[in-house]
Amino acid sequence: MTTLPVLQDACCAPITEEALTADQAAVLSARLKALAEPARLRLISLLAAAPDGERCVCDLTAPLGLSQPTVSHHLGVLHKAGLVTREKRGTWAYYAVVPEALASLAAVLTPAARS
User: To 5 degrees, how large is the angle CA 51–CA 67–CA 79?
Assistant: First the structure.
């Protein structure tokens, strides 16, 4: 499973300023597809709001009302898209948001102020 690279701030200008290259569009599309699912958006929110910045899969099933395999699947999609990190500790996996990935999405989608 290949994880997408984190888009850097210098990667691309806002899409309202210049056209994306094919590679930039592919990465951006994959990230947006990963986020375009209600459970995954909620997972990003739960992870970002965690006091220590991370959560165990075991702590995410109840808030979502989903089974552990389903939550793990959604987290796997987010991980593959480069939006979350994963660290194995014993039998559990802990996930955290990659702030730079979310910031780069916001930067690409935010039009620059025109003077």
Answer: 55
In the β-sheet with 92-97, what is the strand arrangement from edge to edge?
55-56, 92-97, 84-89
pTM over 0.90: no
H helix or E strand, kind and range, residue 30:
helix 22-35
Element containing residue 76 per DSSP (H, E)? helix 68-80
Cβ-in-10-Å burial (0-12, 13-18, 19+) of 1 comes to exposed
Query: Could you read off the pLDDT of 2-39 as tens digits, one per residue?
Result: 555 544 433 677 777 888 889 888 888 889 999 999 99
In angstroms, rounded to a whole number, what is the distance separating the alpha carbons of residues 97 and 47? 6
Residue 31 in tokens: 């990230």
Residue 29 · residue 7 · CB < 8 Å: no
* CATH code matching the domain that covers 22-109, chosen among 3.40.50.150, 1.10.1040.10, 1.10.10.10, 3.10.20.30: 1.10.10.10
